[in-house]
UniProtKB/TrEMBL annotation:
Pfam families with a match to the protein in the record: AnmK (PF03702)
Gene Ontology molecular function: any one: ATP binding
InterPro entries given in the database record: Anhydro_N_Ac-Mur_kinase, ATPase_NBD
Gene Ontology biological-process annotations: amino sugar metabolic process; peptidoglycan turnover
Signal peptide: none
Keywords: Kinase, Transferase
Organism encoding this protein: Aequorivita viscosa
Protein name: Anhydro-N-acetylmuramic acid kinase
Cross-referenced Gene3D superfamilies: 3.30.420.40
Classification via PANTHER family: ANHYDRO-N-ACETYLMURAMIC ACID KINASE
Transmembrane segments: none
Length: 342
C-alpha cells in the first residue's frame, strides 16, 4: 500500500479467518519502507508526465515494489503466502472523466515475486460509473462493525458508516498531502505532534475561504485526488501572506472543522492513519465535536489500509463482493481487482 502522503510503502503480513459469519484477522508483521527523495519527487511530479513517461515510471515502480516485497518476505522468513494483494500508487484519479491510474499493477509483478498477485482494485469500479474510491469501507463493515464511524487520516481524510443498512463512505478533505508540504518548507517531512501548527495563528479570512469550497457541500459519493488539491487548495494557500506555521495552524483548524461536521453527537469514532499522531489535530477535533474517539494500537493505526487491501484481495479470489455501490456510486456491487499468476 502506498498513499498520497508519500510516507512510503506499507507492507503487512496478515491472516484472515471466516468463522460463524464473521471475519477475523491478525497482523503478524508490518513495516513501512520510506521513500527516498528520488522516489518522492518522481511520484509527486508524475501527474505532469506524458503517456510515455508514465509507462516508464510504471515499469520502474513495479520493479521497486517487487524488490521491497521480496525483501520483506526474506527478512521475516515468511513461508506460506496465498496471495500478495497490492494497491500500487495512485498517480491520476479523475473518475468524472472515467479514469484512474495506479502504477505498480503490471502483470510483471507476479513474475518478479514468484507468487499470485491481486491488484488494480480501482479501475473496474470507475468503468462501472463509480468513484473508484474509497475502497476501505467494505473492510470497515466486515472487520470493525462495532464502531459508529471509521475515520482514516492519511493524505486525505475519509470516513465510513452504516446508514439505513447501507455502508456510506466518502473523502472529507485533504490532510497530510497539504500539511506535509508546509512542514517540508520548515525543514521536516511532517509537523511532529502538530507542534508547528500549535504555535501558529489562525488566518480567519483564509479559513473562511477554505471552508467555502464547493466540494464540502456536495453529497456522497465523492472523492478527492492530488489534481483537486493542486487546483483548489495550493493556489489559495500560496496566495496568502502568511508564514508556514500560520498556514499549518489555519489548515489544521480547517481539517478539524470539516471532520467535526461529519459525526452525530455521542458517536464512537475509530481513527487510524498517520494523522492520528498529530495530537494537536486530534485535540481540535475533540474540542469541536461531542464524540468518543478510539485510537487503536500503533500497528492498526499505521497498517489498517494495508490490512484491508489484503482482505479485498482475498474476497476477489473467493469471487465475493469487495466494492460497494453505496460507497462509490458504481452501477452495482462487484468484485474488483485483477489476479495475476507468476
Amino acid at each position: 500500500m502506498s498513499g498520497t502522503s508519500l510516507d512510503g510503502i506499507d507492507l503487512a503480513e496478515a491472516t484472515f479467518n471466516y468463522s460463524e459469519g464473521k471475519w477475523n484477522f491478525k497482523i503478524l508483521k508490518a513495516r513501512t519502507i520510506p521513500y527516498s527523495s528520488y522516489w518522492k519527487n518522481e511520484l509527486r511530479e508524475a501527474i505532469n508526465y506524458s503517456q510515455e513517461q508514465l509507462e516508464r515510471l510504471d515499469f520502474k515502480y513495479t520493479e521497486k515494489l517487487s524488490e521491497e516485497i521480496l525483501g520483506f518476505i526474506r527478512r521475516n522468513n515468511i513461508q506460506e503466502i496465498d496471495a500478495i494483494c497490492s494497491h500500487g500508487h495512485t498517480i491520476l484519479h479523475q473518475p468524472e472523466k472515467g479514469f484512474t491510474l495506479q502504477i505498480g499493477n503490471l502483470p510483471r509483478l507476479a513474475k518478479l515475486v514468484f507468487r499470485t498477485v491481486v491488484c488494480d482494485f480501482r479501475t473496474q469500479d470507475v468503468n462501472l460509473g463509480g468513484q473508484g474510491a474509497p475502497l476501505v469501507p467494505i473492510g470497515d463493515r466486515l472487520l470493525f462493525s462495532e464502531f459508529d464511524y471509521c475515520l482514516n487520516l492519511g493524505g486525505f481524510a475519509n470516513v465510513s458508516s452504516e446508514v439505513n443498512g447501507n455502508r456510506i463512505a466518502y473523502d472529507i478533505c485533504p490532510v497530510n498531502i497539504v500539511l506535509n508540504r508546509y512542514a517540508e518548507k520548515l525543514g521536516k517531512d511532517f509537523d511532529e505532534d502538530g507542534n508547528w501548527a500549535r504555535s501558529g495563528s489562525v488566518n480567519s479570512k483564509l479559513l473562511e475561504k477554505l471552508n467555502a469550497l464547493p466540494f464540502y457541500s456536495e453529497t456522497p459519493p465523492k472523492s478527492l485526488g492530488l489534481e483537486w488539491v493542486n487546483k483548489n487548495i495550493f493556489p489559495i494557500l500560496d496566495d496568502v501572506n502568511s508564514s508556514s506555521k500560520d498556514i499549518l495552524r489555519t489548515f489544521t483548524e480547517h481539517i478539524a472543522m470539516q471532520l467535526a461536521n461529519q459525526f452525530s453527537e455521542g458517536a464512537s469514532v475509530l481513527i487510524t492513519g498517520g494523522g492520528v499522531y498529530n495530537s494537536f489535530l486530534i485535540e481540535r477535533l475533540k474540542n469541536l465535536s461531542a464524540v468518543t474517539v478510539i485510537v487503536p494500537s500503533s500497528k492498526l493505526i499505521e497498517y489498517k489500509e494495508a490490512l484491508i487491501f489484503g482482505l479485498l484481495g482475498i474476497l476477489k479470489m473467493r469471487g465475493e463482493v469487495n466494492c460497494l455501490a453505496s460507497v462509490t456510486g458504481a452501477k452495482s456491487n462487484h468484485s474488483s481487482g485483477i489476479v495475476f499468476s507468476p
